[in-house]
Design brief:
By secondary structure, the protein is mostly beta strands. Helices cover 10% and strands 39% of the residues. The mean pLDDT is 92.
Length: 67
């Protein structure tokens, strides 16, 4: 399927993926992320409740702490 990921058109393996499955496929490790799906912020506890479909717009932001 084709999605827009962080502003870039991207081909993704699979169809109708949960947000959890989608993020796991990005191979960004265990670092916490914020996800926005079609303009709506998704809470981590809701990642399994939302599905990413062909044509969706997804923003994934890695949370980084520092000092």
């Amino acid at each position: 399927m084709t999605v827009t990921l962080n502003g870039k058109t991207t081909e993704v393996e699979g169809e109708d993926l949960t947000v959890t499955q989608f993020v796991a496929g990005l191979e960004i490790g265990t670092q916490p992320v914020l996800v926005e799906l079609n303009g709506e912020a998704i809470l981590v506890r809701e990642f399994d409740d939302y599905r990413i479909k062909d044509g969706d717009i997804v923003e994934v932001i890695r949370m980084v702490a520092g000092g």
